[in-house]
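pipeline/complex-builder :: batch 7 item 3
reading input block
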Amino acid sequence: MQTTTAQRNQELLERFEAIRGCRHHFPLLRQRVNGKPLVYFDNAATSQKPQVVIDATLRYYEEENSNIHRGVHYLSERATQAYEGVRVKVQHLLNAAHQREIIFVRGTTEGINLVAYSYGRTAVKAGDEVLISAMEHHSNIVPWQILCEQKGAALRVIPINDRGEIELGEYEKLLTPRTKIVALVHVSNALGTINPVKTMVAMAHAHGIPVLLDGAQAVPHMKVDVRDLGCDFYVFSAHKAFGPTGVGVLYGVTKLLDAMPPYQSGGDMIKSVTFEKTIYNDLPHKFEAGTPNIGGGIGMGAAIDYINEIDLASVGEFEQELLSYATMGVADIPGLKIIGTARQKASVLSFVIDGIHPHDIGTILDDEGIAIRTGHHCAQPVMQRFGVPATARASFAFYNTKEEIDVFLAALHRVREILG
Amino acid sequence: MSALRELYQQVILDHNKNPKNFRVMQDATGSIEGYNPLCGDHYTVYVRMEGEVIADISFTGSGCAISKASASVMSSFLKGMTRGEAESTFRDFHGLVTGMTAPGEAVERLGKLAAFAGVSEFPARVKCASLPWHTLHAVLEGASRPISTE
């Protein structure tokens, strides 16, 4: 028995050692800021990019750049193959049933807007309801608010408790025949809460209600299986998952996507155009008007290859280690309060310090070379729920270290010294 | 002195801890809210004018050390000035925190306000220092709606 535990510990140590070895894949992390080694703790805003992603993007522009789905020439074929190859990679990453269910978009925000516009405008009528949670990012509030205003529908909000967890009992009560869609964050950017989305999807489906999941903060930290979760739509951005900015994914089940009208229109999304009538293209191209972010898409493909290599399960465990180390460390800072203490939490540490504004914390940490986010994190209703104008947020990725957290903790003591 | 110590000078820290004129003004002739939606800084500036003279000025609200100290020093500095003098001080102060005016040049005219010279090294914090001033400007202009830095 003892041997088994020892073996297990040894195996864990080896896996963690392998993760620590990944840090050098990220060239940006080698720099100094304000004369100090950079400590990058703003991963929930955007992740850094491994060399392989930078190289793949560069190589595309050096060797393959051409417009896709158009030319018969060599380069166009090559670019089309590379770009469409990424669709297959995303399909496998999310375990989607079909390639056609993977729609390329600019990012999470555009993905949600697409569904709110296209699905929302056909499915939601006056008197209907759209259900979101109290911990949504503005990008999963405002598109639904606009939809509800235009349709005379109502936006309903699932309450959260003081730990920042969904009140499942209240959620159940809010699922009614008027509810036409549930739009829910998988992992909260402001609180770190990992929502029980599989259960929540099943609860909505019991009422015949489709569910959209905002996976922006989930994909970089955990294995996401859309068929296991059972969700109808899933959206994420490449840039939070080690890929480039300006590209992301909307996953949708074929049945819903097929019935939805186009979101934007123009080239690529058509089969034939006359002045009398346009026949729309099949999925996924029906939702991809115009020349897309090809270089970004290819960078996203390289990021997915990278994610597949690093073993997301170990990454998740390692980040939990960082989170609990930091959580224990900040307990020594007088007057510091953590906002978001869910039992299931990703590596996000949002906090306030008595009498010290988050912006002052941010400036003093920056002087020590530490990048954190301060402000409302595009989640003003979350700030209102916890009665704070803003928070300071440190968010960790697997390339961060305990040594960096020590630097961060020392800097928080310095904040106290300077501002009292 | 490091840029950080230059920013968080003792004057600024003191005014942040114990702000002057931090109160609601019942007999104000004008007041307005100013906020920075990015960081949540939120103040109300009150003014009692006697003709062209700022007879009294106060503020309430919350925000970072820089914005609160700025509101406090501003209120002490401007009391008794004319509208025109206040506006011209705002221009000088704005020049100082955006780095357009050399600190030495400003010190003579700006007195205690020169403590905010360090802000110019922190572009992200310029809005914090200038929010109370923009709010005051709106009061003097007779604006009726809250102002925002964004």
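note: Residues 83-97 of chain B form the longest helix (15 residues).
queue -> next item
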